[in-house]
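Module 6 notes. Inverse folding takes a fixed backbone as the condition and produces residue identities as the prediction. Think of it as a translation problem where the source language is geometry and the target language is the twenty amino acids. Below is one complete input and output pair. Work through it position by position during the lab.
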């Protein structure tokens, strides 16, 4: 289950009504939620779509405001949905949440958010992430997945680097 997110508020009553039911999309801002988003990708993207549909009744300026706020969920649900669905099968076979394990191994507090870029208006910047963790995690934690190839299973490694 993707953890509930705080309700985001704006100066727009129209957007606030939509965000009341759509704040789950802000889970994408915290990499600690990455595995949960993968495992619940359809719920996550359904919430994203409902939020966008709700905002269609708002002004163009309000819709633009929302689009800037939900850029991460839009990227996941529009550009990377199929990759997330493929990754779901792999992640379901894992007993360990490697993102959280790696962060914990690096001494990052469990209650703290892990972000690629902590500035709210910035595009995703993978280099900013390394500046935010001390010490820098130099561990490599692989997801190992059994993927069938004809009748013989093969091990495919996908690696997340921190």
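Target side of the pair, the amino acids:
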């Amino acid at each position: 289950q993707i953890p509930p997110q705080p309700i985001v508020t704006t100066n727009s009553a129209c957007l606030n009504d939509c965000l009341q039911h759509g704040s789950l999309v802000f889970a994408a801002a915290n990499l600690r939620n990455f595995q949960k988003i993968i495992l619940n990708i359809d719920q996550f993207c359904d919430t994203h779509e409902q939020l966008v549909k709700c905002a269609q009744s708002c002004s163009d300026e309000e819709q633009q405001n929302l689009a800037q706020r939900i850029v991460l969920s839009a990227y996941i649900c529009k550009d990377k949905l199929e990759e997330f669905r493929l990754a779901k099968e792999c992640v379901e076979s894992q007993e360990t949440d490697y993102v959280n394990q790696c962060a914990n191994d690096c001494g990052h507090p469990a209650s703290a958010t892990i972000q690629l870029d902590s500035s709210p208006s910035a595009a995703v910047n993978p280099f900013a992430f390394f500046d935010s963790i001390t010490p820098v995690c130099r561990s490599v934690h692989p997801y190992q997945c059994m993927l069938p190839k004809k009748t013989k299973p093969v091990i495919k490694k996908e690696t997340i680097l921190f």
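Reference fact for the lab report: Residues 13-161 form one domain.
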